[in-house]
Amino acid sequence: MDSISIGKLDIALLSNSCEKPRLFEKGEELFWDDEHISKGMLEAHLNSDWDAASRKHETIRKSCEWIIQKLGLKESSEILDLGCGPGLYCSIFSEKGYNVTGIDYSKRSIDYAQNYAKEKNLSIDYRYMNYLDMDFEEKFDLVMMIYYDFAVLPYEDRDKLLGKIKKALKPKGHFIFDVMTPKAKNKQSKNWSINTDGGFWKPNPYIELFESFEYEENVVLRQHTIIEENGKVSIYRLWDKHYATEELQKIMIKKGFRIKEVFSDFTGKEYTDDSESIAIIAENMEKER
């Protein structure tokens, strides 16, 4: 990104950096794999009492047990976890005897997951890669993408991923994922802070300018503009698409899936019109001959 000259604050540059960007315009690339940011994200994943990078660990265990019961998974089932982080779900499924593959684009998280699996003598195939580049064919009984990862994808990437997932699933295999509904949208806001000891985004002091923006079709952006002491400006953009059930039905049918059931979460909580999240169980429809 750009830099502000030392000793001179370029207001025009800073103003341009904080403007509302185009829909799904990218900010800093691969920030989840950044040496500093990934450290904070891993700590959040591993905090068992914090719904941050992952859900609380007790909720994760309940979700795994509910998924097994709901889908009637057999011990020989093949499971793929997209955006697996440090392997919290993968480890539980592996402990229960399932064949598990986990994909994540954070090397720090994958390294942790691999070390944990080795320590616990779990046979899990972890892969450090972009799940948009995966290329499996009729291998999995279940593909899962939990904690709203589906909602961050631009439409083109979303459709590409659905094609990859369909190809990876066995006939009648399941894809489960969750998203936020329009009920979860917050009002637009902006604020700023000075982080004299560094923080989540940078290890050294920085100023953070935050602003949220709303777009058509229930898309929300949380934009973090970070100004370091040396004048460097970094922009981190966190996109979220809030989906309605009717919209998901159309998308999934078009991509060859049938939505079987809808819940509020993966512990089986009932979905209502006031739910702020949707947990989807979709089935891979067989290709027409």
UniProtKB/TrEMBL annotation:
GO terms for molecular function: transferase activity. Signal peptide: none annotated. InterPro entries: Methyltransf_25, SAM-dependent_MTases_sf. Gene3D superfamilies: S-adenosyl-L-methionine-dependent methyltransferases (2.20.25.110), Vaccinia Virus protein VP39 (3.40.50.150). It holds the Pfam family Methyltransf_25. Keywords: Transferase. The keyword rRNA processing does not apply. Residues 79-173 form the Methyltransferase domain. CDD domains: AdoMet_MTases. PANTHER family: TRANS-ACONITATE 2-METHYLTRANSFERASE-RELATED. This is Methyltransferase domain-containing protein. It comes from Acetivibrio straminisolvens JCM 21531. The lineage of its organism: Bacteria, Bacillati, Bacillota, Clostridia, Eubacteriales.
